[in-house]
Amino acid sequence: MGFLTESVEVDCGADGVPVAVHWRGRGYRVAQEPVRWYERRAWWAEDARLPADRGTGAVDQQMWRIQVQLTVRSELLTLELAHTLDTGRWRLLAATSPSGAQVVRCA
Amino acid sequence: MPTFAIDLISNTYSNTDVSFPHLHVATAFSAHYGVSRPAALAAAAAADGADALACTDRDGLYGAVKHLGACREHGLDPVLGADLLLYGPGSERALGRVLVLAAGGTAGAGYAALCRLVSAAHARGGPPGVDPGQIADHAGPAGPSGPVLTVLLGPASDVGQEFAARRYRAGRAALARWRSRLPAEALAVEVVSHLAAPGTAGSTSRAARMLRAALEAGLTPVLTNAVRYATPAEAATADVLDAARALTPLEALGAPGRPGVGGAADRRAPPAEPLQPNGQGWLKPARQMRSLAAEIARAADLGAAGAEALLAGTRQVADRCRLDPVADCGWGRPVVPEAAVLGLDRPAPVELRSRCETGLARRYPGRRAGPAVRSRLERELRVIEDLGFASYFLTVAEVSAMIGAMGVRHAARGSGVSSLVNYLLDVSQVDPLEHGLVFERFLSGDRSTLPDIDIDVESAQRLRVYRRILDRFGPERVSLMSMQNTYRARGAVRDAGLALGLDPGTVDAAAKQLWHLPASGLRETLARRPELRDFAEQVAREKQLDLLVDLTERLDRLPRHISMHPCGVILGDRTLLDRTPVQTGGAGMPMSQFDKHDMDPMGMLKLDILGVRMQSALAHAVEEVARVHPGRPRLDLEAVPVDDEATFELIRSTHTLGCFQIESPGQRELIGKMAPTSFGDLIVDISLFRPGPMHSDMVRPYLEHRHGWSRPLPVHPRLDPILAETHGVTVFHEQVLRILDTFTGCGLARADELRRRLGSERQLEVETFFRERARAQDYPLDVVDRVWAVLAAFGSFGFCKAHGAAFAVPTYQSAWLKTHHPEAFLAGLWEHDPGMYPKRLLVGEARRMGIPVLPVDVNRSDEHYRVERLEEDPGRLGVRLALTGIHGVSRAEVRRIVAGRPYASLADLRQRARPARRTLERLAAVGALDGLLHRSGGTASRADLVHALRARADRERPPRAAGAREVPGQLALDLGDLELRGLPAERPEPTVEEKVRTELDLLAVDVSAHLLDSWAPLLRELGVTPAERLLELRNRSEVLVAGVRVSTMTPPLRSGRRVVFVSLDDGTGAVDCAFFPDAQERTGRHLFGTRLLLVRGRTRRTGPRGISLSAERAWDLADPATPAAVRAPAR
Q1: Residue A94 lies in a domain
Q2: CB B235 to CB A58 under 8 A?
């Protein structure tokens, strides 16, 4: 995962669960309960340093699959997002339309 | 959706209970697996409000005792278990892993069963593991209190693997099999979610399947987090450990679809496990564990009731497994062998007293046992009886007597020497009253832990002694102690480099430079040490090396593997194996999974029986004296007078190479300055040569007062006598105790407690106490001030005089032997190699003493270094080198050669000793066949013979006819007896230089000449001064010296700066060169690595007979560029 991902902005609720996504200048609301998991990073290839006092985030990145729509009546898009824990940065990995067509595939 | 009753689980869980008991936690003592130490885990759990915490190391209870201690400290109830490999019933196939926990409240039955199950896992052979039948056997029949073990079937178990693969029927069948072996209360299903990608290992969906399976089967579900580290930040360290365990780089191990790669075969591990899916295996706080339970229950369509069932099940199992360290594990209760096994027919205290009486008559014949001895004995016996340690002393006496009966040299060491009882029981050979040793330094009524009595034995007999103890007390009472080997820089760089997949050559080169460094602070070390400069520059250049340094620091001090402790023998009663798990240690002997830190807490009696090479060397020397002087009465080293003037003359000459404790450059310098004249001086010398005294300028005043250059200031008539033996300087703990006792009246036992606080952050308490009590005793203020100043100055650097006295015995004995039987002494040193120097340096010492070193000879040498009467002058003795010293010649070959001696011809040798062809060539090369060659009457040289034998060895083996077998000796036929005489003389005898090279290659000693001799022309040209001429020079003369490195040390020094001492041997003697920081800087990598050195420096007089060199710079003598560099004007 590297250069081809797109940055997105995500609003989260108090429990850290996304409620809204800002992508390409438009605001989407989260329509269904998202799915969240953690995936490892190949930190040995990506990081230059790994001091023992580095906090979180060396191994894990948080992954989200969320369904969003522009308005209540517009079609649902499925987004796959990666959330880097130590920088707080959100990146879009893929967006899929209801027909299954891939709108965007990064990385 | 199948129906099942969630209310089966007794619902004790309530939402007000906010803590969560982690029941699956590997500590750092799960080598190459766990990351955090028990103390860190317990602290984290306690901080989160937990009231119980488990330690479930892989394959054993390695961290268990530390866990018990940490839990006590943090007010947690400990739970103990082991994460074990599971074998199929009666099969060698591993099915997975299970977690087995000990049940608490069973009066120790649960913990005992766990210990024995773990021992059984290791007794199996192959990777340690158990089968379900073994688990059921150890869990015990469901008695009144139920089974004593609880098995958690988790994702790695046979059950978990079936459900993970969605083989529901097989999973249910596996559960039913467990259910048929164990009652339901002994079983639980472990539910783990590491929140991995849906559908993969560690995912919530798999955890949900396990939760449902548990409830369907009516078994308790238990939520764990399969913890490997306390905090998320340590997850990457676990990755590195995974790679090290699998011997596979992270890139390969982490690549999707490639689990189980790598060559783990040589670590006897089961197939390599894939890298953890993510970094979620940390000790999550209760809040997160509760939401995890909710998430899993939701995924299982079980809602809040499911989560509650899961948390309630966890708590229920935790409650069943809470251990009381004292009642369940025997915490703090000393256990010694039963009286019956010691053969006592009366109470131990009565027996001890009676044996001490016998000892009095033997040690103090006639009426020498005066009132002082009597009252001391009474005092000691009273303390021993009050503590209930009589049988402990009898046990040690029994072991000591047993070793003596084996004919093995042994000597007590350590503070146990302070005890008159030990002296009377023949455990110790030092009279504590004669040397003013204080019993309270060893044992007092205030100490309830078992005291240490250490026994040194001949190193070569150590395992035989251990086996004898095992036989005598029985395998149920004896186990060897283990030790945890932890990562230091070198190993850490290797494993971190492997994990990163760096080029092995680069990693190896880096690792070689990091000998004996801690891995923590490596970055800082690199910046500071001149000899690591090249590596530091490389790190700055290469990004991956930067990461390597970080990972190396992360691995620092993590346990890597356990091994047999060099001296600890655990002796218990017949319940020992209920209290410690054992596995097979070195030499096939049972080894406890507990280390020395675990002994006191677990009340385990540990004897330190240390193999000391010097004891073996002394034994060999005594043996050789007896062999060459068959007529004389046998030498008894214990009986030689300790005031032999010739021996002290030798010690004062500082020609003490080979002598115990006093052969190092620093020690030779010290004895040169001190000029010891008595055994007591040796005790002082040994006690002074330690980091504290050397750092704190104790030595200078001692020497000045000793030589009368200045006088100690009198302080007080009651202080001065205490310090008289050390000229007003506090050298011994014993003196500190007496001073404290004299001026405060606190008693010697209390004084020892106070002494331990000197130099610590609690010193102020001691000062307050001392001042108040001394003033209360009416000492004037200025006296109190001055006495306190004496204590504060050196009190914390003192040395236990009992240790010093114990060490001084072999020191004196070795010096005595070197004085009176130098040939036998050298033979002993070569045979057992006890010292710090390579064997070849002692060849130089033999040369200096005029003792011929006789070459290896097949007709004269045997398996041992032998003293031999010279053929040309039977009144003189030499030392014959052993056949065993030849590199590449096997023990079996040596034994055959020795058995067949003498040999009339080469053919005879070949026929009867059947050496390998290469062996024959090696024998010829070191001159072992010269005798045969000369006797043959031929004219061929050693070179001709080596050439002929090498040609033979190089030749292909002749093809054999099918079925025809080579008969030993057949080869000799084609050569016959005339072989050597018929050898064509074509080559000159090898030059001395060639002989030296061969000798160094094959014998590691240069006998024919000194290694440096061939450099003589260059050294002459450069004006290098030989070692023996240095004494003639003035102090601070600038000189060049050259030689072979024989030792490198960074000893304790007064300034605290690092000084590197390099000793060189140039054939005329040894030069000790001190490299201070500037010189280290200029010398760079040659400081540690280079063998042949040329050193420029200034002479430094260290005493009437001592001189050393303060180095400015060193070069590699073998580097062709060196002569020019040396000739260039110095900066």
Answers
A1: yes
A2: yes
Indicate if the pLDDT at residue B8 is higher than 70.
no
Across-strand partners of B98? B84
Q: What is the pLDDT of residues B1012-1036, one digit of tens each?
A: 888 899 999 999 999 888 888 888 9
Q: How confident is the model at residue B271 (pLDDT cuts 50, 70, 90)?
A: low
User: Which residue in chain A is spatially nearest to B551 when comparing CA positions?
Assistant: A50
Which value does ipTM take for this structure?
0.93
Mean pLDDT of chain B: 89
User: Is A49's CB within 8 Å of B236's CB?
Assistant: no
For A56, nearest residue in chain B (alpha carbons): B233
Query: Quick check: B341 and B41 in contact, CB under 8 A?
Result: no
Residue A48 domain-assigned (yes or no): no
Q: Do A60 and B276 touch (CB under 8 A)?
A: no
Question: What domains does chain B contain, in order, with CATH numbers?
Answer: 6-251+266-328 (3.20.20.140), 340-484+563-614 (no CATH), 488-557 (no CATH), 625-811 (no CATH), 821-955+970-1003 (no CATH), 1011-1127 (2.40.50.140)
Is the Cβ pair B197, A37 closer than 8 Å?
yes
On chain B, the residues whose CB falls within 8 A of the CB of A53 are 233
> Nearest CA to B676 among B707, B711, B648, B641?
B648
Please count the helices (runs of H) and the strands (runs of E) in chain B: 47, 22
Band of the pLDDT at B963, cuts 50, 70, 90?
Answer: very low
pLDDT tens track for B422-468? 999 999 988 999 999 999 999 887 766 678 789 999 999 999 999 99
Determine the number of helices (DSSP H) and then strands (DSSP E) in chain A: 1, 8
All residues of chain B having their beta carbon less than 8 Å from the beta carbon of residue A45 are 251
Confidence of residue B968 (pLDDT cuts 50, 70, 90): very low
- Smallest CA–CA distance, residue A33 to chain B, in Å, is 12
Kindly list the residues from chain A whose CB atom is less than 8 angstroms away from the CB atom of residue B197: 37, 39, 63
- How many structural domains is chain A composed of? 1
In-domain check, residue A49: no
User: Is the separation of the CB atoms in B722 and B739 below 8 Å?
Assistant: yes
B684/B812 Cα distance (integer angstroms): 13
- Chain B's closest residue to A52, CA to CA, is B554
* Residue B820 DSSP one-character state: H
CB pairs under 8 A between A and B: 80
Domain of residue A20 covers 6-40+58-105
Q: What is the pLDDT of residues B623-657, one digit of tens each?
A: 999 999 999 999 999 889 999 999 999 999 889 99
- Would A13 be classed as within a structural domain? yes
* B547 contact residues in A (CB cutoff 8 A): 44, 47-50
Set of chain A residues whose Cβ sits within 8 Å of the Cβ of B500: 44
Q: What is the pLDDT of residue B272?
A: 65
Q: Do A58 and B500 touch (CB under 8 A)?
A: no
User: Which of B239, B278, B522 to mutate to test binding with chain A, by most A CBs within 10 Å of its CB?
Assistant: B278
Arithmetic mean of pLDDT, A31-44? 91
What's A10's DSSP letter?
E
Q: What distance in Å separates residue B521's CA from the closest CA in chain A?
A: 11
- Average pLDDT of every residue of chain A: 85
Residues above pLDDT 90, as percent of chain B: 62
The three-class DSSP label of residue B331 is: coil
Taken in order B529, B535, B540, B544, the sign of the CA dihedral is negative
Q: If you write DSSP's letter for every residue of B989-1026 in order, what string do you get? A: PPPHHHHHHHHHHHHSS--SS-GGGGGHHHHHHHTPPP
Which chain B residues are Cβ-neighbours of A83 within 8 angstroms? none
pTM confidence score: 0.84
**Top-ranked range on mean pLDDT: pick from A1-5, A15-19, B269-273, B278-282:** B278-282
Q: Does residue B98 contact residue B92 with C-beta atoms inside 8 Å?
A: no
Which residues of chain A are at the B interface, by a Cβ-Cβ cutoff of 8 Å?
35-40, 42-45, 47-60, 63
Q: Across the interface, do A59 and B279 touch by the CB < 8 Å criterion?
A: yes
